[in-house]
Amino acid sequence: MGLRRVLLLGEGNFSFAASLCAAAGTHVVATCYESEEEATRREGAARSIQRLRDSGAEVVFSVDCTKLKDYFLPEKREFDCIYFNFPHCGRKAGVVKNRELLAHFFCSSAEVLAEEGEIHVALCNGQGGTPADQPRREWHNSWQIVAVAAGAGFILSNVHPFNAETIHGYKCTGYRSQDKSFCVEGALNHVFTRSTPPPYFKPRSCETQLEGQKVSFQVPQVLVDKINRGFLEPNSNHPVWTVKEKLTAGLSQAFPLQSTDSCLSLLQHGHLDGACPSKVFWITLSPEETPGTEGISHRLANTILSSHVDFCQDTDKNVQEGCHIPKQFYLRPSLLPHAQAIIQEGAFPPGTLHVLSGPVFRKCRVSPHSLPVFHEMLIVFAVSRGTESSCTQMLVNNIKTTLHSLHQTASGTQPSLSLQDATSFETTELNDFAAFESQLSKIQYLICLGTDPPGCSVGVIRTPHELISSELVVVSASLNLDLLAMLLCGISDWRMLWTWDTRFLRQFPRGELRLFKSFSLYPPSYVHDISFWVPDGEQLDEVAFHTLARRVLGEMVVSIQLRDSFQQSGTGRRSLCYRLTFQSCDRALSCREAAEMQLHFREQIRRRLGVTPR
């Protein structure tokens, strides 16, 4: 392994560089903006420069931090770390000019930084504009360093105090371009790393089993990066897999258990079992693969599906207008139909838990805790009539005990759990994630599918007598493994579970749950309002509006809220105004990108929803 190459920019008296030159395995390249003649006039500079040269470090003068590649040959451009302590345009330059300096610096650094390198920028207290600054300046009066860095593809991965007193021989200098010190009390060191590049996902097809044969279908664009991710595969180290395995292991100690995962079809058809038609993803199969439909010819079934289901998938208008198709296919919004199939097959011995798990899909509104896809764990078992309450209590207690242990292992603390009365079989609606998180201990892990935001339930399904017998009932519990993983590992945004950044999974050794440490701190957010006229006599389908936002903006919008609605006097035309908040949880998102996305979205709602942007 070679030497770690460290580049220091904007050195004043070179005292900081001199403190690093003795570090083992490090090659230091120290630079300053001034000429050598100007630099050596600073107090102590000549001594520090000589110390650097004696240690084998490079010292380079007259280096412009906005044009770094001009000073280094291509083979010497990959630095593992770049330090820029207390950058400033000089004299009385204001925040705007210093933001511009940082913007050009980050763009220049991207050309000479190693792929997994770091950029360290030290700023005086309040300059950065992040919550780490105490006190925190108003946003417009700060250097907005995280947003500025995002423009060059960098994210803030760490921030910590700049402790000048611990740096041997260090003395700050350069106050207003003079050989004078300045106050560094409360200063912060900001550590930036490269973001993953903007995602681009081509349209793709997916294969699944349907009625005993393999079929392929076009994946809805909003889900192309979430189909077949393999989170629950046997070789996975994803926290969702770990939660499922731990819960399954806990259940197997108290109940006979059968587990079913990979053989479950992604597609379903027929009745929606309570799911709202406008909240499912409708799917078109290629004509040669569409299974025959009872009561009509195979060719007619193909014709109907090809001509109508795709329209249904994009607009949902035929669902709202009562369009009837003999066999409609959709991505499964629940695993419950698979459980019902097991019951119908008769392979359902009393007392044995059947555990089904896999991803389920639904259209939903945009929020940090509304998940268009998540991994459901469905627990189903038959018990004697009259014993359902006690059996459900056993199930709840077992899940509670396992979650106790997992929470203690992940966080190192013992939660104070109180058991919600599970014998009432009531559904509790959760209005926000804060409420959900505050009741971590209760049986609000057991969620009821189809609610938005998720609710929770411990329910009893009484099956028709002929399916099992008049003496048996079926108890089921549905768990959202994604929300469980978020709560146990301290993950605040569901999108992080689906990140392509390898730094996420590196934090989770196989079979272990740990508190997640975000590698993208204080991501900037950008607010844009969109106003438009709704066609006369029509109502805007909000779920379709939010789903189109996911499709067009690629999960870069974290919140959509209706801000205003009014009807124009005289014409009766209705106008709506929505506020979109753009923010990424795992990659750099610049102000310019957000503005371009907003303009593209305006065009798409005009084309696809028939509204008229104002």
Automatic annotation (TrEMBL):
GO terms for molecular function: ATP binding; phenylalanine-tRNA ligase activity; rRNA (uridine-N3-)-methyltransferase activity. Pfam families: BMT5-like, FDX-ACB. Residues 1-17 form the signal peptide. One of its GO terms (biological process) is translation. Its main location: mitochondrion. Residues 521-614 form the FDX-ACB domain. This is phenylalanine--tRNA ligase. The keyword Mitochondrion applies. Gene3D superfamilies: Bira Bifunctional Protein, Domain 2, Ferrodoxin-fold anticodon-binding domain. It catalyses: tRNA(Phe) + L-phenylalanine + ATP = L-phenylalanyl-tRNA(Phe) + AMP + diphosphate + H(+). GO terms for cellular component: mitochondrial matrix. Belongs to the class-II aminoacyl-tRNA synthetase family. Its EC number is 6.1.1.20. The gene is Fdxacb1. InterPro entries: aa-tRNA-synth_II/BPL/LPL (IPR045864), BMT5-like (IPR019446), Fdx_antiC-bd (IPR005121), Fdx_antiC-bd_sf (IPR036690). Keywords: Aminoacyl-tRNA synthetase, ATP-binding, Ligase, Mitochondrion, Nucleotide-binding, Protein biosynthesis, Signal, Transit peptide. It is found in: Mitochondrion matrix. PROSITE patterns: FDX_ACB.
